[in-house]
Write a structure and sequence with these properties.
The structure holds 2 protein chains of 2 kinds. By secondary structure, chain A is α/β, with parallel strands linked by helices. Chain A has helices at about 15-25, 50-55, 105-120, 135-145, 160-170, 180-190, and strands at about 5-10, 35-40, 60-65, 75, 85, 90-95, 120-125, 145-150, 175. Chain A has a single domain (about 5-185), classed as Rossmann fold, CATH 3.40.50. In chain A, helix 1 packs across helix 6 (about 180-190) and helix 4 (about 135-145) runs parallel beside helix 5. Mean pLDDT of chain A is about 90; it is low at about 190-195. The model of chain B has no long low-confidence stretch (mean pLDDT about 95). In chain B, strands 6-2-1-7-8-10-9 form a 7-stranded mixed β-sheet, with helices on one face. Chain B has a 3-stranded antiparallel β-sheet with strand order 3-5-4. The longest helix of chain B has 16 residues, at about 80-95. Chain B has helices at about 5-20, 30-40, 45-55, 60-70, 80-95, 110-120, 135-145, 155-160, 185, 220-230; strands at about 100-105, 130-135, 145-150, 175, 180, 190-195, 210, 240, 255-260, 265-270. Classes of the chains: A alpha/beta, B alpha/beta. The complex binds S-adenosylmethionine.
Chain lengths: ~200, ~270
C-alpha cells in the first residue's frame, strides 16, 4: 500500500532552535506540507520566536491561533504555556491543561493528538533535548502507522530526547542529521514518497 | 487508548439527556484527552463502563464534571495582560461610583485574586463587586477559600511585579505551613457562584467581563453564543477581556466590539 504524508510535526527542546532554523531555511515557497513546531520554551515569553524564524525562512512561520485551520505551506509554532491538540476537521485547539513531562507545550500531547487524526499520513520528528518528552508521542505516531524520524544523537546538543525516542521505537524509520532531514522533507513535498506498509 | 469520536458523541449525548449538560460543542480533542485521563483515574476499561457509572447517580456525575473540565490556572498569568487592564480599563472603572466585574470560568480563583489586588492598589476594590462563576463546584469552593500553595508564591510575586503591582505580594496573604491564605480584606468584594455559560442566561450587567482560557474549549458556534451572552451583559462601552490566544474578531459579533488592545485581547462593546 502506498501513502502520502500530509503533515509534519517536529518536537524539540534545548538546542533545537539552531536545528530548526537549519532545517527550515532551505525549504522553498513551493514546499506544500504544513509543519508544526512543538518547542519547549520559557513560559511567559511571547511570540518573538515566529519573528526570529521568519528572518531565516522563506515559508511563512506563525504562532498558532486557536481554531485556525491547518494550511499548506505554513510553519506553525505552538504558543508558550498552551498544549496544542488537533481536531478531526483539521483545526487547532489549544488547552492550558496540566503540564506533561514538566512541559507546556508538551511534544507528547501534540504528537498523540495528531497521530489519532492523521494516522499514516503523519510524519513525526524528534530533535535534540534534555528530557524525555516526545518519546511517548513518537511511539503513538508509530502505533498509528505514521512515519518516525529522529535526529541522529551524534548531531544533537542534548542527546536524551533523541535517544529516548530511539529507545522506545526500537528502530525509527529514519535517523537523520538536520541537513538530511531537509533533503528528505523535499522528497515528501513532491508527494513521491511512498512506503511499503 | 483509542476512543472513537462516535463513542465520545454517544457519551456526550447520554449526559445531555440525563443531566442537561451539553458538551456537544466542546473541543472533541480536549474531551478525548480528559476522558482518557478519567478512565485511568477511575479505573474503567472503556467508555461504556464509565457511562453506566456516570448515569447511576448525581454524585457520580458531579465527580465526572469536576474532572472533565480543565481548571489549571495561576495568579497573574500573562503579566502584560494585567498591566494593560490597569492602564486601559481602570481609568474607565474610576469614572463610576460603583462597578461590577465578572470572571466567567474563574476556576480556583487565582485570576480573580490577582485582579482584586490590582483593584485594591488603584483604590477601586472597595467600590467594586467582583463575581466569579464556573460550572465546576469544587473549584468554586476553593476559589471562595482563597488558599493557595505557598511554593507558587515566588513565581506569582515575579509576575505580580511585572504586572505593575506596587507593593509586595506577601502583603496580601498569610503564610501558614505550606499555604498562602489570602486576606479577608482582599476577599471582601468577591462573590462566587455556579453559572453555566452554555445554558444559563445573563444575570447582571458588568463594566468589565474577564473570560480567559474558557472559550478555547468551545467550537466557533458555541463561542458566538457566549459572545452574545457577554454582549447582553455589557452596557455600551463596557469591556471584555479574553485569553491571550482568543479573539472576538473571527465571530459574527466582531462589528459590535472595538479593539482596545489587540495583543492582550481587550475589547470594548460599541457605544449606542
Ligand atoms: C482553564 S480554566 C480558566 C481559568 C482562568 N480564567 C485562567 O485563565 O487562568 C477554564 C474554566 O472554565 C470552566 N468552564 C468550562 N465550561 C464552562 C461553562 N460551560 N460555563 C462556565 N465555566 C466553564 C472550567 O470549569 C474551568 O474552571
Amino acid at each position: 500500500m502506498k501513502r502520502d504524508i500530509e503533515l509534519i510535526v517536529i518536537g524539540g527542546s534545548s538546542g533545537s532552535l539552531d536545528v530548526v532554523i537549519e532545517m527550515l531555511k532551505d525549504l522553498e515557497k513551493d514546499f506544500e506540507l504544513p509543519i508544526i513546531l512543538v518547542l519547549h520554551r520559557l513560559k511567559n515569553t511571547r511570540a518573538y520566536l515566529a519573528d526570529l524564524f521568519n528572518r531565516y525562512c522563506v515559508l511563512e512561520v506563525k504562532e498558532i491561533e486557536e481554531k485556525e485551520e491547518i494550511k499548506k505551506g505554513t510553519v506553525y509554532i505552538v504558543p508558550a504555556n498552551y498544549h496544542l491538540l488537533i481536531e478531526s476537521d483539521h483545526t487547532f485547539s489549544l488547552t492550558v491543561s496540566e503540564k506533561v513531562n514538566f512541559s507546556r507545550p508538551s511534544i507528547d500531547v501534540t504528537f498523540e493528538s495528531a497521530a489519532i487524526i492523521f494516522q499514516e499520513k503523519l510524519a513525526g520528528v524528534i530533535l535534540t533535548g534534555a528530557n524525555r518528552d516526545g518519546a511517548a508521542g513518537i511511539n503513538a505516531v508509530k502505533r498509528m502507522g505514521g512515519l518516525c524520524i529522529v535526529q541522529d544523537p551524534k548531531t544533537a546538543t542534548m542527546k536524551t530526547m533523541p535517544e529516548s525516542a530511539i529507545q522506545i521505537l526500537g528502530t525509527p524509520d529514519y535517523v537523520f542529521s538536520p541537513s538530511e532531514m531537509t533533503i528528505f522533507f523535499k522528497t515528501l513535498k513532491k508527494s513521491n514518497y511512498a512506503k511499503e506498509i | 487508548m483509542l476512543l472513537e469520536e462516535s463513542e465520545i458523541r454517544m457519551l456526550i449525548y447520554s449526559i445531555y439527556e440525563k443531566y442537561g449538560y451539553d458538551f456537544s460543542n466542546y473541543s472533541k480533542a480536549s474531551i478525548r484527552r480528559r476522558l482518557i485521563r478519567i478512565l485511568d483515574l477511575l479505573e474503567f476499561n472503556n467508555l461504556k463502563e464509565l457511562q453506566s457509572w456516570l448515569l447511576k447517580s448525581n454524585e457520580n456525575f458531579e465527580r465526572f464534571l469536576n474532572e472533565v473540565t480543565v481548571n489549571v490556572t495561576e495568579m497573574f498569568r500573562d503579566p502584560t495582560f494585567f498591566k494593560s487592564l490597569k492602564e486601559r480599563v481602570f481609568p474607565y472603572l474610576k469614572t463610576f461610583p460603583y462597578t461590577k466585574i465578572w470572571h466567567a470560568g474563574c476556576s480556583t480563583g487565582e485570576e480573580m485574586y490577582s485582579l482584586a489586588i490590582l483593584l485594591e492598589e488603584a483604590k477601586l476594590l472597595s467600590k467594586a463587586q467582583v463575581y466569579g462563576t464556573d460550572i465546576n463546584t469544587n473549584v468554586i469552593r476553593e476559589a471562595r477559600e482563597g488558599i493557595y500553595p505557598l511554593k507558587e508564591m515566588a513565581d506569582y510575586s515575579r509576575n505580580y511585579v511585572r504586572a505593575g503591582g506596587k507593593e509586595s505580594l506577601s502583603n496580601y496573604y498569610l503564610a501558614k505551613f505550606d499555604s498562602a491564605i489570602f486576606s479577608s480584606h482582599i476577599k471582601q468584594n468577591l462573590l462566587f457562584s455556579y453559572h453555566n455559560l452554555v445554558t444559563d442566561s445573563s444575570f447582571n450587567e458588568f463594566n468589565l467581563i474577564v473570560c480567559r482560557n474558557v472559550l478555547i474549549y468551545f467550537d466557533r458556534e458555541l463561542q458566538a453564543k457566549v459572545f452574545q451572552l457577554f454582549l447582553d451583559s455589557l452596557p455600551p462601552l463596557g469591556y471584555l477581556a479574553l485569553g491571550s490566544k482568543e479573539s472576538v474578531l473571527f465571530d459574527k459579533q466582531r462589528d459590535q466590539f472595538e479593539v482596545i488592545d489587540e495583543k492582550e485581547r481587550i475589547y470594548r462593546k460599541n457605544g449606542l
